[in-house]
Amino acid sequence: MSENAVRDALCSVRGSARLAVTGLGLAGAAWAVRAVWHIRLAMAGEPASGPPDQGEGRHRPLNSLEDSYHLVSTAGSLLTLLCAALFIGWLGRMRDNARALSGLPPRHAGIWVYVSWFVPVANLWIPRGIVADIHHRSAPDRKLPVVVNVWWALWLVGMVTGVGLMYDGDTDDVIARAYHGVTTLLVADLAVVGAAVAAILMVRALTAEQLVHIGARLRTPSGDPLKETVRAFDRD
């Protein structure tokens, strides 16, 4: 691919990286708050009237703590969705740049950037593979940062515990779990918070690596940077 074609194909990633970091920070904070509410529920203990879901379609009125947990849970879910959108936006831009820098097609088709998180079995390895492929094609001379594996290990813990990111029960079920088995909830909460922190470090590290290689690539034969292009990336 010619230098002009590479320059035209590159996307600015600083802005999307900042947005992804912000989204990850908000999501991590939301899950930390959920953990606090799980502890509060466990300490309060289940009311004498039993769990919120009484079975056979019957639900008792919620107390104030349970009602506030519903609000915390809803806010956390919305912030997690916002985080996912911002993170995938950053991932898509990084992927486009990696393709432009390497001149090679990505290892995985574009649709996997969006659906790999939800497809059973595939969601255990493809998302990490997409991130690793982006780094390899952006900076082939550098090892994959350790934080990528830390992020993915924590993400898997939060996903497969059955009470974390992929838990399909309703909020009243989670409240009942907090009363009778808060430990598994806290493991999931802490794993998700840890994954968010690791993801922030990963976004910063991979973005910095890619920008270094973009700067090295966008140079004239004399060694001078293509100033307007580099300046545009620095402003983003």
Task: Characterise the protein shown here.
It is a single chain. This protein is mostly helical. Strand 1 and strand 2 form a beta hairpin. Helix 2 crosses helix 7, helix 2 packs antiparallel against helix 8 and helix 3 runs parallel beside helix 8. The C terminus is likely disordered.
What can be said about this structure in brief?
This protein is mainly alpha-helical. It is built from 9 helices and 2 strands, in the order ααββααααααα. It has helices at 3-9, 14-44, 64-102, 112-115, 126-138, 146-160, 171-180, 182-217, 227-235, and strands spanning 53-55, 58-59.
Which key terms come to mind for this protein?
236 residues, mainly alpha, two-stranded antiparallel ribbon, 9 helices, disordered C terminus
Kindly report the average pLDDT value.
Answer: 84
Q: Show unreliable segments.
A: 220-234
Strand order of the largest sheet: 1-2
- What is the number of strand segments? 2
Gyration radius, in Å: 22 Å
- Tell me the helix content: 55-70%
Give the distance, in angstroms, between the N- and C-terminal Cα atoms.
25 Å
